[in-house]
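Colleagues,

For the teaching module next term, I've prepared a clean inverse folding example: a structure given as tokens, and then the sequence designed for it. I'd like students to try predicting residues themselves before seeing the answer, so please don't circulate the second half yet.
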């Protein structure tokens, strides 16, 4: 299936202008899968879209993506954890005001894990801002329209919830919602790939539509 003119522009922008052929291939694959709807296409499109939203701006800017190593941190905590620190189902223990004497080393490990988790959440927020500042010329994060960021984050959250295979089937309307959310991503990618004049015009049209 050939890409339409707007999608071809996005593909060329990713591949040639940004010199990111991996993202270009993922984008083209998502468009084709969305059209042909082969088995498993929802997970593939969601996965590719999530990776574009999470990694495109950072990769172009040369920012290394880091993730919290939850398995490693929890394995380390498990090795040092003692069963007597576990709160069981005894009501008298749950209602007790006595404190457990947990070593400072264990408390620090838990504190470090929480801090890494919060830092990871902040990185995700920063990556959202980075897309708009890098590709849509919003140098000041405070000037990014709130509805732009809200729409972007809602779309990314939808993709993240459907990236991995699971035991249960997808919801009945997921195929319809997938097209809607991909169109949202596609819209911002096309605006980013457009000339400065076309980009500003499109952004102003979105703002005018939401303010009516």
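(Answer key — instructors only)
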């Amino acid at each position: 299936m050939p890409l339409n003119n707007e999608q071809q522009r996005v593909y060329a922008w990713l591949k040639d202008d940004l010199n990111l052929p991996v993202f270009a291939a993922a984008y083209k694959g998502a468009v084709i899968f969305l059209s042909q709807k082969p088995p498993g296409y929802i997970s593939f499109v969601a996965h590719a879209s999530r990776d574009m939203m999470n990694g495109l701006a950072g990769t172009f800017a040369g920012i290394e993506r880091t993730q919290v190593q939850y398995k490693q941190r929890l394995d380390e905590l498990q090795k040092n954890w003692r069963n007597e620190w576990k709160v069981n189902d005894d009501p008298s223990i749950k209602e007790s005001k006595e404190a457990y004497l947990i070593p400072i080393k264990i408390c620090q490990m838990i504190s470090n894990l929480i801090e890494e988790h919060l830092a990871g959440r902040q990185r995700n927020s920063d990556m959202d801002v980075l897309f708009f500042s890098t590709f849509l010329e919003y140098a000041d994060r405070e000037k990014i329209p709130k509805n732009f960021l809200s729409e972007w984050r809602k779309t990314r959250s939808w993709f993240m919830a459907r990236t991995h295979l699971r035991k249960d089937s997808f919801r009945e309307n997921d195929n319809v919602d997938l097209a809607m959310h991909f169109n949202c991503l596609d819209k911002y990618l096309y605006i980013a790939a457009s000339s400065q004049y076309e980009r500003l015009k499109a952004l102003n049209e979105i703002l005018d539509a939401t303010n009516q």
